[in-house]
Specification:
The protein has 216 residues and is an alpha/beta fold. The chain has two domains: 138 residues, Response regulator (Rossmann fold), CATH 3.40.50; 62 residues, Winged helix-like DNA-binding domain superfamily/Winged helix DNA-binding domain (Arc Repressor Mutant, subunit A). It contains ten helices and six strands; from the N terminus they run E-H-E-H-E-H-E-H-E-H-E-H-H-H-H-H. Helix 5 links the parallel strand 5 and strand 6. Helix 2 packs parallel to helix 3, helix 3 packs parallel to helix 4 and helix 9 crosses helix 10. The radius of gyration is 19 Å and the shape is elongated. It starts with 5 loop residues before the first strand and ends in a 6-residue tail after the last helix.
Amino acid sequence: MADDKIRILIADDHEMVREGLAGMLNTQGDLEVVGTAYDGLDAVRQAEALEPDVTLMDLDMPNMNGAVAIRQIRERRPEARIVVLTAYDTDERILDAIEAGAQGYILKGTPRDELFRAVRVVHQGGSLLEPTVAAKLLGRVGQLLRRDDGPDALTDREMEVLQLMVKGFRNKEIAERLYITERTVKFHAGIIFQKLNVSSRSEAIAVAIQRGLVRL
């Protein structure tokens, strides 16, 4: 039945890419492309108007890049499910997209079956990173964990997360306030624990207060 199909929005600034993806996705009985967007601003408008189940988002687009568009879409619709489909696999791009709220990150040129799988997995509430992307992300995490710069090395985002922890907000509430995913909050929390040399939220709060890192 049509009502059972996963409704998809495609955001890419190349018309041929949009048409090619739409044709490929529509070959699947459970997938249906309901709209396309030609840049980040249009992606935000279309996502709000169409309320798709899953949005396929390119990162390098005019007027508004994909990461900013993801953040704005998630701000308006926290339940939105977004898969990044891009040619870029740099650490910074990956982290920006995941922090913005993307639940999947795959590269253009990936086998079509993997694209179908990514849409289905993300629609069901899961997350999916292409193996090469996951490897880069894990490598980046490893670099952060190996840093030995002490508490002063906390990034601005980590300080925001820590401050909200001290105020008693749970991971889900922190995610909503910072417009990031709960998974990203857990990622930042893990880095904070490592940098403060603690193993729990309560320890992190105690150390943060003791060292004057946050204000009550």
